[in-house]
Specification:
Rossmann fold, globular, alpha/beta, three-stranded parallel beta sheet, six-stranded parallel beta sheet, single chain
Length: about 280
């Protein structure tokens, strides 16, 4: 049987069109969804991601305001800006682009964002709600992965999901969401010994490592669903995932491409969270 390519780009495009109708309805009701993105410094990858978010938001009829601050911005100044945005009723979603410069404590900044406007789903309150399985803003990449699995009718319950990577923004939350859906979840990471012995048992393999093409076909069980979260830029400027796609296609039943897989879904889910925030969903306090 041949492999199915999970087309995140196409699915994200469809979702954005559906969201546009929802936004038009909200606007008729007098609510214009607005996302404010805060970008500190000029990390070239961040600049390019933020452009993508801005464009996608505008296409869906969502206001996207990008506040660009210099590298020299102090932690205090950033916290003050977040406080202002928290109090600004025209702003429904706040996203502080990561990574932040080293002199700023990321966790402090994330926690300063109102959980009601935390469209990244990174605030401890929202992480807690995710863990207990309540409705809340889910982190966009894990949410995008789950949406893609569902859109392609991939069964999760009872499957062995192996997550490689334990970042707060991808690895940890995607494992939790899979667990919430009754998968058996194994986490692997940079200190895991004999990675292959775990990955070759995976019905669903999530690669969120950040190293180009390290997951070769020997790591993959025949018939596995392979989700490649890696976005690695090669010297020639091209993008590639953590999975050696060509080899993996010989073993996998389903696989996400890079680009055009998880990345576009991440942005679509950011827009979904922003619309939900504008509707007043997931509020606490
Ligand atoms: N507070 C915060 N929230 C984030 O969600 C966040 C962040 N910080 N920091 C950086 C990462 C990375 N990220 C991506 C989103 C979309 C693509 C994406 O659309 N990728 C395209 C290719 C884009 C290209 O060509 O460069 C694709 O995979 O097809 C990539 C990366 C969000 N992040």
């Amino acid at each position: 049987m041949s492999v199915n390519i999970l087309n995140g780009k196409q699915l994200a495009q469809r979702l954005r069109m559906e969201m546009k109708d929802e936004v038009d309805q909200l606007v008729q009701d007098g609510i214009k969804p607005k996302l404010t993105v805060v970008l500190v410094g000029n990390n070239p990858a961040s600049l390019s991601y933020v452009k993508g978010k801005e464009k996608a938001a505008k296409e869906a009829g969502i206001l996207a305001d990008v506040i660009r601050l210099p590298d020299s911005t102090s932690e205090k100044e950033l916290l003050r800006l977040i406080q202002q945005l928290n109090e600004d009723d025209t702003v429904h979603g706040i996203l502080v682009q990561l990574p932040l410069p080293e002199h700023i404590r990321e966790q402090l900044v994330i926690t300063a964002i109102s959980p009601n406007k935390d469209v990244d789903g990174f605030h401890p309150v929202n992480i807690g709600k995710m863990m207990t399985g309540e409705d809340t803003f889910l982190p966009c990449t894990p949410y995008g992965i789950m949406t893609m699995l569902d859109a392609y009718d991939i069964e999760i319950e009872g499957k062995h999901a192996v997550v490689i990577g334990r970042s707060n923004i991808v690895g940890k939350p995607v494992g939790q969401l899979l667990l919430n859906r009754n998968a058996t979840v194994t986490y692997c990471h940079s200190r895991t010994k004999n990675l292959k012995q775990y990955t070759e048992q995976a019905d669903i393999l999530i690669a969120a490592i950040g190293k180009a093409n390290v997951i070769t076909k020997d790591y993959i069980k025949k018939g596995a669903v392979v989700i490649d979260v890696g976005i690695n830029r090669l010297e020639d400027g091209s993008l590639t995932g953590d999975v050696d796609m060509e080899g993996a296609m010989e073993k996998a039943s389903h696989i996400t491409p890079v680009p055009g897989g998880v990345g576009p879904m991440t942005i679509a889910m950011l827009l979904k969270n922003t619309i939900d925030a504008a509707k007043g969903l997931n509020r606490v306090e």
